Amino acid sequence: MNMLVNAAKRLLQMPADAVIASSKNLLPMTQKYLPYPAPESFYILQKMNGERPEYGRDNLPLPPQYLRLNYGSVDEHWLNGGRVDVDQMMTIAKSGKFFLQQGNRVLDFGCGPGRMIRWLASFAEECEIWGVDISARHIVWCRENLNPPFNFATVTTQPHLPFEDRYFDLIYCASVFTHIDDLADAWLLELKRVMRPGGHAYVTVHDKHTQDLLINHLDRVPYADDFRQFLLSHDQKMKLSV
Q1: In whole angstroms, how far apart are CA 207 and each of 15, 211, 213?
Q2: CATH number of the domain where residue 99 is located
Q3: Are residues 127 and 237 in the same domain?
């Protein structure tokens, strides 16, 4: 934040033409995303496979380990964790009298490698389902392996989504707001903008209660051992850096 403040002060002291010239350097700092793949001078995107007639959620490709974001090194755990989360989301949605039906539009905000969206495959023929993320590497993998039946787009950390007003019937964010700091309120307003009147939002966060469950009561959180190890290793790194 101090870096942005200092940059703003410098801009105020510069003539207009200099401000325009320097704006290209300021843009990546204010509209961050994770490019694919940043250090390489060139790369090849695989041709998307449009021949996937069956939309079964069990026959979709699995992402490589390095894209799984510590949600499970064992295939079964990774898959079941996403299935449990989607089942819980749909149960809560139904309790609010919301049921996915033909023509509905769904947004997975922060989809990663498709851990949850894959479990909506049975709705994909009748619904328009999108996944967005700031990680282009994850979006590229999803587009190469999960499109069809789903749609994907890379976004930035700026509170803006590439959709028109009142577009989605259901928006879900699985622990995304756990990682958003000073723009959380602006992002909530952006999600409201793209949600249809009467639409539903499903938002979860990792709080201190979550931390306690993962560290001290793992038996109550199925398929979460990898994420528990990640939290403990991060805590150890923080202690060593102090």
Answers
A1: 46, 6, 10
A2: 3.40.50.150
A3: no
Is residue 194 located within the same domain as residue 214?
Answer: no
Same domain for 181 and 100: yes
Residues 6+ apart with CB under 8 A from 160: 190
Number of alpha carbons in the 13 Å side-chain half-sphere of residue 103: 1
Asked whether residue 161 falls in the same domain as residue 181, the answer is yes
Can you list the residues of the chain whose pLDDT is less than 70? 1-31, 47-58, 210, 213-214, 217-242
Q: Are 176 and 109 in contact (CB under 8 A)?
A: yes
Pair 165, 218 in one domain: no
Asked whether residue 158 falls in the same domain as residue 105, the answer is yes
What confidence score (pLDDT) does residue 135 get? Answer: 94
pTM as predicted: 0.76
Interatomic CA distance for residues 92 and 231, integer angstroms: 28
Q: Whole domain around residue 188: which residue ranges?
A: 65-204
Tell me, yes or no, whether 141 and 173 share the same domain: yes
Phi/psi at 218 (nearest 5 deg)? -60, -25
Read off the pLDDT of residues 149-208 as tens digits, 9 standing for 90 and up.
999 999 999 999 999 999 999 999 998 998 887 899 999 999 999 999 999 999 998 777
Tokens describing residue 1: 């934040």
